[in-house]
Amino acid sequence: MAEKWRPWITLLKDIAYGVLLWLVIITFVGQVREVPSGSMEPTILVGDRFWTDKLFLRFGTIRRGDIVVFDPPPPIQSPYPYIKRVIGLPGETVEVRDGQVFIDGEPLVEPYIAEAPRYRFGPVTLAEDEYVVLGDNRNLSNDSHEWGLLNRDRIFARAVYRIWPFDRIGPIR
Questions:
Q1: Could you state, in order of their start, the residue ranges of all structural domains in the chain?
Q2: Is 3 exposed, middle or buried (0-12, 13-18, 19+ CB in 10 A)?
Q3: What contacts 147, CB < 8 A, 6 or more positions away?
Q4: Number of Cβ atoms within 10 Å of the Cβ of 22
Q5: Per-residue model confidence (pLDDT) at position 5
Q6: Has 39 been annotated as catalytic?
Q7: Looking at 54, 84, 141, 144, which residue is catalytic?
Q8: Catalytic residue among 4, 13, 37, 39
Q9: What are the backbone angles phi and psi of residue 20, rounded to the nearest 5°?
Q10: Under 8 Å between Cβ of 40 and 47
Q11: Which residues form a coiled coil (predicted)?
């Protein structure tokens, strides 16, 4: 009778190992995310799906231009993580004025934005664990210019590779 159940037991063990492997991957390596808003247009469009890298936080550094996934800071109450581009790094002074971002007084070249920002922000000098994150669709993005600086401990992944739609598959730059 035990021989009769052996294939089912093997199948259940394989499923359990698969679920365990899946949990390890999405917890420590990365996972697929979908963009629900147009705040990152034209770089990432509504409905795009992309693979995120969680390992870079352990083995790399956050750089200007990285597109990061994070839990929005208080007072934002959202069940979904946010995705924005890192603009200001720790120790820098960031200001947005006259339709331009300035880092330590120097204009930042941003070929990826939808249009020039129509708001003022800063100047603000970032502490050791603070970042300024802005959406590429600057004037329609709920980002640092509205709620302030982002602490490093809220960042949990970086967007690295678009997997949907098929006609735009590739690295996210």
A1: 1-30, 31-171
A2: exposed
A3: 72, 73, 75, 76
A4: 11
A5: 83
A6: yes
A7: 84
A8: 39
A9: -60, -45
A10: no
A11: none
Q: In this structure, what token pair is assigned to residue 1? A: 């009778």
The residue type of 143 is: D
CATH fold, domain 31-171, is Umud Fragment, subunit A (2.10.109)
